[in-house]
Amino acid sequence: MQRLLKFLHVSGSAGFIGSVAATLAATVTAGSPGSSEPAAACIVAVDAIRWVALPSLLLLVIAGLLSIALRPAFLDQRWLWAKAVLGIAAGGIALVVVLPGLRRLAALTVAVSPDQPIDTASAATLGTVSAWSAAIVLLALAATALGVWRPRLAGGAD
């Protein structure tokens, strides 16, 4: 059972990181000069978050919590707590900053014709969403590194 939970946890992590990285690529592309379809890129990014990142995040959290329930000794590991903090930060940013920003962008850019450049407000929102998406990827990769290497952190058990 532990191996299945680990597989599900890692699969959820891969889906979450991959979909946020795809969102980052779509928003960077949408904001680049000469981008022909900023609305389409924003809609793809919203769909990547909604249909891949959020279910992957849910799988990641449920499998992680079940794994801890099966091995309560994990609770004494400080690397696990650091990983949890990084994961909560990444998921929270995705839910509170990136998804609403992408929805706002999709609504703003749908009315713009494809041959027009995006307006200043949309460009600023794109920059914000891109920056936060990059932060999520870095936080999630750091959490993954902690789970793989399980370092000894000061005062923690092995």
Summarize the structure.
The chain is mainly α and 158 residues long. The protein is built from four helices and no strands.
Written account of the structure:
- With 158 residues, the protein is mostly helical.
- Helix content is 79%, strand content 0%.
- It is built from four helices and no strands.
- The protein has helices at residues 2-30, 38-70, 78-110, 120-149.
- Helix 1 (2-30) packs antiparallel against helix 4 (120-149) and helix 2 (38-70) runs antiparallel to helix 3.
- The two termini are 23 Å apart.
List keywords for this structure.
158 residues, mainly alpha, 0% strand, elongated
Output the radius of gyration.
Answer: 18 Å
Percentage of residues in strands: under 5%
**Ends apart, CA distance between termini:** 23 Å
Question: Which blocks of ≥5 consecutive residues have pLDDT under 50?
Answer: none
DSSP summary, beta strand count: 0
Number of helical runs? 4
Main beta sheet? none
Shape: elongated
Averaged pLDDT? 86
Element order, helices and strands? Answer: HHHH
Structural class: mainly alpha
Can you give the helix content as a percent range?
over 70%
